[in-house]
């Protein structure tokens, strides 16, 4: 199982840095925008499209990070009342559903990225496909983290 754990550890650390940096940048960007708008009456045009990209990064990478930590939305109160085998079955179903979700996001966003690759984000001039590339990366991370959890469940079962 270490063949997947070590790369996932590195990937996790990278996602933490990227998501944290994006959150800090978003905070600074909003403060800058508010000061420019209300103090200097000069609202910068570029703030909104950059903020949207940062929010996408924070949300998608944050979701992947919570999958790795096992802190995603679940029905813990119901699962905790199940017997041990039921809890294990629920965990299997949960991670299989997450992988299915990740595959759907991957292919849906990949198609959108391919469709919009020639378009540009207004004001920034960046490719519109960038908006859809972020969830593609996050979906790969979600699938890898869920697969790691499934391998851990499988290893635990065979001990």
TrEMBL record:
Keywords (A to Z) from UniProt: Cell inner membrane, Cell membrane, Membrane, Transmembrane, Transmembrane helix, Transport
Membrane topology category: Multi-pass membrane protein
Residue intervals passing through the bilayer: 12-34, 46-67, 88-114, 134-155
Domain of life: Bacteria
One MF annotation (Gene Ontology) recorded for this entry: transmembrane transporter activity
Domain Tripartite ATP-independent periplasmic transporters DctQ component stretches: 26-154
GO process terms (BP): C4-dicarboxylate transport
Keyword Transport listed: yes
Subcellular location field: Cell inner membrane
InterPro entries linked to this entry: DctQ, TRAP_DctQ
GO annotation, cellular component aspect: plasma membrane
Summary of the function given for this chain in its UniProt record: Part of the tripartite ATP-independent periplasmic (TRAP) transport system.
Quaternary structure, from the entry: The complex comprises the extracytoplasmic solute receptor protein and the two transmembrane proteins.
Cited PANTHER family: 2,3-DIKETO-L-GULONATE TRAP TRANSPORTER SMALL PERMEASE PROTEIN YIAM, TRAP TRANSPORTER SMALL PERMEASE PROTEIN
Family according to the record: Belongs to the TRAP transporter small permease family.
Full protein name: TRAP transporter small permease protein
């Amino acid at each position: 199982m270490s063949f997947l754990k070590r790369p996932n550890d590195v990937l996790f650390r990278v996602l933490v840095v990227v998501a944290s940096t994006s959150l800090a940048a978003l905070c600074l960007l909003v403060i800058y925008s508010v000061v420019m708008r209300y103090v200097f009456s000069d609202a910068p045009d570029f703030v909104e499209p950059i903020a949207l990209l940062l929010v996408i990064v924070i949300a998608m990478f944050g979701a992947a990070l919570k999958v790795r930590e096992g802190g995603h939305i679940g029905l813990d109160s119901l699962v905790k009342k199940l017997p041990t085998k039921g809890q294990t079955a629920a965990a299997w179903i949960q991670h299989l559903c997450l992988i299915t979700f990740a595959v759907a996001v991957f292919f849906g966003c990949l198609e959108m990225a391919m469709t919009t690759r020639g378009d540009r984000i207004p004001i920034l001039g960046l490719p519109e496909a960038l908006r859809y590339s972020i969830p593609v990366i996050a979906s790969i991370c979600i699938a890898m983290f869920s697969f790691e959890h499934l391998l851990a469940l499988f290893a635990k079962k065979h001990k």
